[in-house]
Amino acid sequence: MPTAAAIWAVLYAGVQAAWAGLRVDVPWSPHISYHPVVQLLLAGVALLGGAASVATRRRFGRPGRLVVLGSLALAISVFTANMATLPGHLVMLAALSIDSVTGLAHVLLSAVGTVLLASVAIAYGRRLRGRCPRCGGSHAGGYRGRLTHPAASVAAGRTRIRVYLLMSGLLPWAAVKTIWTLGGDALGVTAEGWRSAGAGASAPVRALAAAGVDVTVLAGLGGVFLLLGLMYPWGQVFPRWSTPILSGRRVPRLLPLLPAWMCAVGLAGYGVLLLLYASLVSVTVLPAPPPEAPFTTSSGNIWMIAFGGLGFGGLGFALILAARSYAERTRPICSEESAGFRTVK
Question: What 3-state class would DSSP assign to 319?
């Protein structure tokens, strides 16, 4: 992982420096782009994270360890924030539509870096505590032997209840979207206005809408499917209904964890911001926004913002809980531990 993180850092820094030098537009939001100076700063943070990753292989005193951990924490924070818009880009990809190739590339590079740097930080923290950097256990011997994976299990009842409650936040938002798509009126938006607003969408999106399916609702159902896989055994062992070839085989641990980790932070943060904005408008701390098509009233717009906050935020926090449970239940242990070495749960 340190080597992979260092390679990523050099690649990322080179891409950002090239974009800055060529004045390539890299959007941060639909109306704001990264300034070349910011791109160079991001390149520097990436190189700092890569250097810290390589430094985890050496032994330092307390000041040195704090510098390494601080550098990793800074880099992870920066690139986690940079990949926050990944869920939106994934929805656009599902709709066969890309607003900005450079924006998508920037988010994907940030997501890869976040995963690599976080993996390095976790392993380094385990070594500093005298534990196996690979499995987190406390055992004698090396850590290059065979890994033993636990049997498939179900998430704890308390975790399942919390996830289902958070998941239910999708219902108001999905219900309103479905009403519009099926030809009904809601929140001051008519079916005709909704269709006019989506006239410029890609052909697959229009085809789904004609069949009564909104692409964002479909993406939400994909998130629900991921949540269920994280909580139940079929997310750890491929079930019979998957494919005949994979049936009964162990699911690679990172297959559900990576999309869950990558999307959870962005969804949760976006949902919280939407709910905060809707709350401040409702108590007149902020002025109500003027209605924009297809909305005909400000109140309808605010209600939809609140529903989006409940849906996105609920899905994001549900993914955090479910992914944490899945990571704990599926964590492999080094084969040496089967001989009676003490493990740390």
Answer: helix
Find how far residue 20's CA is from the centre of its chain: 27
Tokens, residue 40: 């160079």
Taking the C-alpha atoms of residue 307 and residue 171, their distance in angstroms, rounded to an integer, is: 9
Bridge partners, residue 148, by sequence? 333
Spatial neighbors of 140 by CB under 8 A, at least 6 apart, are 336, 341
- Alpha carbon distance 115, 324 (integer Å): 15
Helix (H, G, I), strand (E, B) or coil at 287: coil
Q: Are 26 and 33 in contact (CB under 8 A)?
A: yes
- What element of type H or E holds 129? none
Could you give the CA distance from residue 223 to residue 316 in angstroms, rounded to a whole number? 9
Instruction: State the first-to-last Cα distance of the chain, in angstroms, to the nearest integer.
Output: 23
The whole-angstrom separation of Cα 65 and Cα 76 is 16
Tokens of 188: 């001051």
Q: pLDDT per position in the chain (345 positions), as tens?
A: 899 999 999 999 999 999 988 888 888 776 778 888 999 999 999 999 999 999 998 888 888 889 999 999 999 999 988 887 777 777 777 666 677 788 888 888 998 999 899 999 988 988 888 887 877 777 766 666 677 888 889 999 999 999 999 999 999 999 998 888 888 888 888 878 887 877 766 677 777 777 777 788 888 888 999 999 999 999 898 888 777 787 878 888 888 998 898 888 888 988 999 999 999 988 888 888 887 878 888 888 899 999 999 999 999 999 999 999 999 899 888 775 443 444 333
* Residue 292, strand partner residues: none
What pTM does this model have? 0.80
Q: What is the spatial distance between Cα 107 and Cα 119, in angstroms, rounded to a whole number?
A: 18
